[in-house]
Amino acid sequence: MLNTELNLAAPDDVYEALVALHRDLTPEQSRLVNAKLILLLANHVGDAAVLREAMAKAREGITPAGQDSTLRTTA
Amino acid sequence: MDGSTAGRVDYQSLVFPYARSPDQDAPQPVRHPVVIVGAGPVGLAAAIDLAQQGIRTVLLDDDDRLSNGSRAICFAKRTLEIFDRLGCGERMVGQGVTWNTGKVFFREEPVYSFNLLPEAGHRRPAFINLQQYYVEGFLLERARALPLIDLRWKNRVAGLEPQADGVLLDIETPDGGYRLQADWLVAADGARSPIRRAMGLESRGQTFRDRFLIADVRMDAPFPAERWFWFDPPFHPNQSVLLHQQPDGVWRIDFQLGWDADPVAERQPERVIPRVQALLGPEARFELEWVSVYTFSCLRMERFRHGRVLFAGDSAHGVSPFGARGANSGVQDAENLAWKLGLVAAGRAPESLLDSYDAERVHAADENILNSTRSTDFITPKNEASRAFRDATLELARDCAFARRLVNSGRLSLPSTYRDSPLNTPDAEAFDGPMQPGAPAADAPVRVAGEPAWFLAQLEHGGFTGLWFGEGEAPPLPATGGLPLRLLQVVPAGGAPAGAAVIEDAEGMLARRYDARPGTFYLLRPDQHVAARWRRFEPALVQAALARATGQG
């Protein structure tokens, strides 16, 4: 089960660190760093059910508004 | 060149003469139990398998040559084991380049390497690379040694009429048309399957907007017999490249080109040679052997059985080339189909047994399409986010073990386990390991009459095998109602062979791989998949499982 209660001892520090991580990066570099971070955390969490819950939570309230145009497939 | 090609048959140049069949002069369409369309690897394998069961086939091909170009080059362990059963595995492996190691590079650097067959005690390697024309040539030579196969070149199916008890075929030849009546028709006629089209059927799925260039080059090169895969290399930026060794000093190089590439221009030597030179370096000397630009789709038909017509191989399903799942899964279709069709054609099993061909091979096709689509998504990311995850995975793979397992340059073809097959008898007792009902039987080194041998070679008789782990007198098998069933007894190393069908588990590997204890009994199908298993031999249970495995349960 995904824990959505506070689980961080110093939440402000962690939030600051997340923002600081991207301060001097281009959007493309940022995207890469975020992707690495997600992969590292996903592996650390290990529980696929929890990860799927987190993915669903992250998508909640987002209305799909299109794709970027890179290498799109056709049906 | 090292001269090793001297004296070899140039299979690509062979032309097979059309010969008139007496059927063409018959007043009425002649009836045949099985007609197979397409003398590629799938059609040939099916014809050989049926002939080995004593079933006569007519094999029609619209052409008079073997595969043009190397095409499918990776033949997987399970396919080699099938070729062993068909009597030509040794030739394939002898001619092919054996490899087990793959290396992955990201930009300039090696990221990691993997061994596809980390476990010893298997007769066949994870893969061999062998040009498709050799595979077809060796299968063809085997087929020609079997008088039950009537191979007709330049016989094109121009039309067909499905009937309740067969199919009426209109065939065109260089000297006119004729008609044939088939009890059963196997459509192994390739991705564009004219039979599928004539029946108004479709293979549906996803087409990928990307183009790839295959360049087969002949050269003297220091590359080892490994599969090398580059993501975004400096010599071909932003795209992927695959390098693979084939026999006769030929290397397969596969360049991703992107969707905007011009398929005609990219085929020209003046475009291809600089790409190859960039990979090999300015000093390298090579010549182009075969060039092709392709796109691909992941497709399958909704059903592979349509009454008396059975689709197999590319006619039934298509995958991306990443993972070597095209020809391998086609040969595995043929093997799944052949024993069932053999029993049905001989009147030993009900027609409904062929519905399990559909169930099992549709499941296998879905597994192949899933794996192949996942590889394609990794190799050709569809958007910025998926590219970021791909690059992140490759960067992490250098020093994080978990990320190496996520790198996907093709999950190489493994045989399907038919977990939910209606032919399986579910386990009633606890077993460990992968040899569950529906799984393909694993090989192991054994001893037969004191001589080293391989386990799978003991299953090549083409019928069902009752595998009994036990010492002393073998139990009598139950009555089978004409179904072929043989007992194979396994005794521990040093156990006194008591009869002909006794093998010694020389290294204890068979018992380990099958989680066997004294008394354990496996029922193996003719295609070497597990039908059922028990901790003790009980004739009534074996009889029931055999009925179930032949569509009578």
From TrEMBL, chain A:
Pfam (any one): DUF2783
Superkingdom classification of source: Bacteria
Protein name in the entry: DUF2783 domain-containing protein
Record-linked InterPro entries: DUF2783
